[in-house]
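User: Please write out a complete single-protein record containing the residue sequence and its fold in token form, without commentary.

AI:
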Amino acid sequence: MMIWLDASGGAGSIGGSVGTASVNNINWNLHKGTNGDTTVFFCFVASSRLQNGNPDLKQFFNWLANHSYIDQNQYLTTIQAGVEPFSGSSKLFTSAYSVSIK
């Protein structure tokens, strides 16, 4: 699963749009596709640019499970954060990065 806070400049997510979702009181466009090895991939793209935030990742997983996109018995194995420049260059400023698993 990927969470895009911005998709400006013509950047596009993997796969095609399968609808919209409201998670953490924010509207997201949901995309579903494969990454070449047939792994199903989900991408939540913010409907408008977000410059900062503190997302509760569990809410995204809950949304996918509640809408039958994933099995509730699946679990998280890796977390990453960063940027993927679409063109030109990009900068990411992070003052803190923490993960709490409950």
